[in-house]
Every structure is written in structure tokens, then in C-alpha cells.
Amino acid sequence: MYHRSACEAADDTLVELIDYCYRKFASMVRRCDLLPDGAFIMEDDKSNSAKSLANMTKEMEMEN
Length: 64
Prior knowledge:
By secondary structure, this protein is mainly α. It is built from 4 helices and no strands.
């Protein structure tokens, strides 16, 4: 992304990528705010095991 032509070719894709990253970050911050002191987000979350992540569809990944 150091060349003007690469940025121009990316067009709206960059805007969508930035929006996606922002929404994920905001979701993580919101989840952290709801946790009691000293707790971790992934502590009791069994939905992120290797098997369940491997079996996710692309739509399911985007929702998480």
C-alpha cells in the first residue's frame, strides 16, 4: 500500500476493512466493560475451541 496505484485499486475495500476492524474492536471493548474485575474474555468461552473454529462457515466467522 505504499504506491498510489495500489491504494486506488483497493478502492472501497479499504473502507470496508477499516469498518470491520472498528466494529470488532468496539465489540471487544464492550465485552471487556461487562466483565467483572480480574476476569478475561476467553476464560470460559468454549465456543472458540479449535474444533468449533475449524467448523465455522464464513458467515459465522463474520458474525463473531
